[in-house]
Amino acid sequence: MRTFPLYIFLISSMVVLFTFFSCGNKKEGNAKSKVGDTLSVLSNFDLLIEEDPDNPELYFQRAEFHLGQDNVFSGMADIEKAIALDSTKAKYYTLLADFNLVMNKIPEVKNNLNRALQLEPENTDALLKFAEFQLYLQDYPQVFEHVNKALRINQYLAKGYFLKGMAYIEMADTPMAVSSFQTCVEQDPEYFHAHMQLGLIFSSKNDPVCVTYFNNAIRVNPTKPESYYALGYFYQENGQFEAALQSYDNMLKVSPKNAAALYNKGYIHLVYLKNYDEAISWFTQAIQSDGRYADAYYNRGFAYELKKNKAAAKQDYENALRVNPDHELAPRGLSRIGK
How confident is the model over 233-248, as pLDDT tens digits? Predict the structure, then answer.
């Protein structure tokens, strides 16, 4: 009866790096209005460029907008046009690096960032972007070199301290990571990912101070499901089941079909509260959200088994094996109830 693990939501450098291409949660009810807003913005850019077709800044701005909308090829065309019109701006090359990273063109990313720093050696955005890229490559000396150079120019750059924190995390130096993330939020109290990293670090130590950091993350961005999940998981692992259920409920408000939250609510009702009907209901919703959720099938089957409904239990154990032939617990379930 495995719970949905917290490590699924751990934020690694691979997730937080180049956060320009991470998308916020989109609510279905707002889809049409967002499409309309996007078309309106693009129409404005099109009109401005039509009136001033040799202005590289307009292509740069439209490329930034395209990147935020995940329109990679349109954005790439625009930033390349901007560079063709003016090849002296470092920020044009850092944006081109963003597009190349999304397209996994690693050598091009390095070339773009080197070019940006050749043009403007003290451009802190380019320095931090290069440090970000080196973190992606796990070249930690280069991370620290470029971050520290940027911080010597401007000691208040929250992103610099965050990148150092991520490097220390990957180097397994937790005290220095904590110090860096705390400095980050001192410089920018709205830095969501730094609050999350601090919460995850203290949660892994079973330190209740993590609750403060997770709540700070929720305050900064209440649309991110991972902060609710991490908070709920901490409560769950520490026997605060009502608080855990409430946190998962809050998560489902921003991510209504989130299988992890649905599953963990079922798990709490099954294992701790012994409310098997509730457990079955939540596992069913998790399966409806993710039809290949083998553990949800297994645990629903176990709930049915505890209710003496062997036929339903047998079907779910078989479904768990159909989805995952290597599932460890489903064969034991079938053995218990008799094939």
Answer: 999 999 999 999 999 9
